[in-house]
Write a structure and sequence with these properties.
Layout lengths: L4 E5 L5 E5 L3 H26 L3 H26 L5 H6 L1 E5 L7 H9 L1 H4 L6 H9 L6 H6 L1 E5 L23 H13 L5 H9 L2 H4 L3 H15 L4
Antiparallel strand pairs: 1-2, 3-4
Length: 226
């Protein structure tokens, strides 16, 4: 399944573009997590083996925690990322783009027992190939999805337009606000872009779409682009 984009418009008029992660990067993240958990368990078994039956009991508790609690705790406390997902630049979020919470995380991870059938995540793989957002069954039931979460460096999200020098000198905070508007312009509806740009008509001397382009041109100038 190729990575696909899910577009969600928030009540504030911001259009979120969530790039769903396909089966391959998700499998790679799962493998990293599996190797990490195996490493932790094997290291812990060295001292636990010295305590006989008591050590075996503690080993079983550790194995349970690594199998069932690890993913849930990481997803809720580390912003939707297990260590494997962080290494691959992936993140679990709710289907509306909000951070995943305890109940959805518990549900999606408990349903791994179904996704893993009949072996090597057979059900989960078929589900990611069929679902338009590459979700396994656990994600569909829990209302979650796995997305690419790698952030672009500051300024790199500004659309490239011909640089337009500013007609007046702006203070640092005003310059930062102008660049931030240009960065977020792709996440806003056209109507919201124009509404915000029209507030700066005294600066641009333009209205609506022309004002938006002018502000983005100013942002390119501030970033030192030609």
């Amino acid at each position: 399944m190729l990575d696909t984009v899910r577009e969600i418009e928030t009540p504030e008029g911001i259009a979120l573009r969530l790039r769903a992660a396909g089966a391959l990067p998700r499998a790679q993240a799962w493998m990293v997590d599996m190797l990490l958990r195996m490493g932790v368990f094997m290291l812990a078994m060295i001292p636990l083996s010295l305590f006989g039956m008591g050590g075996n009991g503690l080993a079983m508790l550790l194995l349970f925690a690594l199998t069932w609690a690890y993913s849930v705790v990481c997803e809720v406390w580390l912003g939707g990322q297990t260590l494997g997902k962080r290494a691959l630049g992936l993140r679990v979020v709710n289907a509306d783009g909000t951070p995943v919470t305890w109940l959805p995380s518990v549900v999606r991870n408990l349903l791994r027992v179904v996704d893993v059938l009949p072996g090597v995540y057979g059900v989960g793989l078929v589900s990611t190939l069929i679902d338009p957002y590459a979700r396994r069954l656990g994600d569909i039931v829990a209302g979650t999805m796995v997305i690419h979460a790698i952030e672009l460096p500051a300024g790199q999200q500004v659309p490239t337009l011909a640089a337009v020098p500013l007609p007046v000198v702006l203070v640092a905070d005003e310059q930062a606000a102008l660049v931030e508007f240009a960065e977020r312009s792709g996440q806003l509806t056209l109507q919201r872009q124009e509404e915000l740009a029209n507030l700066l008509t005294p600066l641009t001397g333009r209205n609506d779409s022309a004002a938006v382009r002018q502000l983005i041109g100013h942002a390119n100038w501030l970033l030192g682009r030609p």
